[in-house]
Amino acid sequence: MLKQIADKNSTDVQRRKILNKLNKNKFVNGRIKESYINKFVLSGKGIEKLLLEICVENEIEPTEDLCKELIDTKGQSLRKQYSEIRATPITKQGAEEIPNTKAEEVMPKATLNQKVFFSQHLTAYSCWTNIKQALEENGIAYGLLPNTKDIWVRDYMPAYSNGHYVSYVYNPDYLQNEKDKQYITDNVEEVFDLSNDSVTKTKLVIDGGNVIMCGDKIIMTDKIFVENSGFSKEDVAAEIERVFSAKLVVIPWDKEEKFGHADGMVRYVSDNHVLINNYKDIDPELRLKILDALNPYFSQISELEYGSAQRVNSWAHINYLQVNNLIFVPQLEIPSDKLAIEQISSIFPDSTIISVEVKGIVKKGGALNCVSWNYFNN
Description:
Elements: H1 2-6, H2 12-22, H3 34-38, H4 47-57, H5 64-71, H6 76-85, H7 102-105, E1 114-119, H8 127-137, E2 142-145, H9 153-156, E3 159-161, E4 164-169, E5 199-205, E6 212-214, E7 217-221, H10 223-227, H11 233-244, E8 247-251, E9 266-270, E10 273-276, H12 279-282, H13 284-294, E11 300-303, E12 321-323, E13 326-331, H14 336-347, E14 352-357, H15 359-362, E15 373-376
Parallel strand pairs: 1-2, 4-5, 7-8, 10-11, 13-14
Antiparallel strand pairs: 1-15, 3-4, 6-7, 9-10, 12-13
Helix pairs in contact: 4-6
């Protein structure tokens, strides 16, 4: 079938049909993603390069048996190339480590102290191709985290604050029924080895999506008190300030969002400057409450505003991934996309703003900050 796909006389429409048949092969076993098949273009690739691309883009290990079945060779060269190309996740002792990838080798000096990690499950989403391409084109080192139970790594991975990590209890109230408990990643030691890093632990229940570090301040919604109702608000605040080494700033929970996360509401710009989402468009009353909460601590507050371009998912633009002076902004193929890029570019004049289409994950309730975890090499 690979010969048929590589045949110059075949059309790309015919090749996609053959790919669907190939996906039923017992060695492939349905692992070629529908999104890959639908967008497939041959572009002059030979049989071995074609198989290599299929394996890399669909996370299929090109075993000797698979190579014999599909290209009638042991595929030693192909398997070596696959190993070199594929970003292997850093795991605990006993598993493989991430090699020096091309992304690291060409990485700008400004980003050398950071790597970005994602759940291995994110590769099943079509937008993973867009995310990966944006990272590689901008020289960002990245990897995949094993033993995660969902794609929202920001929520359960330790938060970084003023030179150390904070490890907390991840046991959110929205994942408490028997069906949803399977999605709680509650043992991050199996996900990433932080034994060589400075880690402060707390018994508080926290979602990393509700942690916005702002230098010597930390912004959280008042959902933090709901999740820790067994303690007084004063004790919760004191514990947060102790473990994060920062002054707690509490903003009201946007009840339209059941998770109670701050990262869809406000983001850090500089020590006395924050950015809030487009509440001018959607909830002027809540906007005033947020401003009242922030004003005593920040001298400058910028706001996103989309007017008639506002759509139900326009909230997601503020849920960007920031790696030093690079900001990857979610794009959804909606009217507010362009306005978000323009406004964020104006708010961060010294940063490079990069568009990334991520409709698939936004439909699930999160965006780029939600699915990423910044690891800092101190």
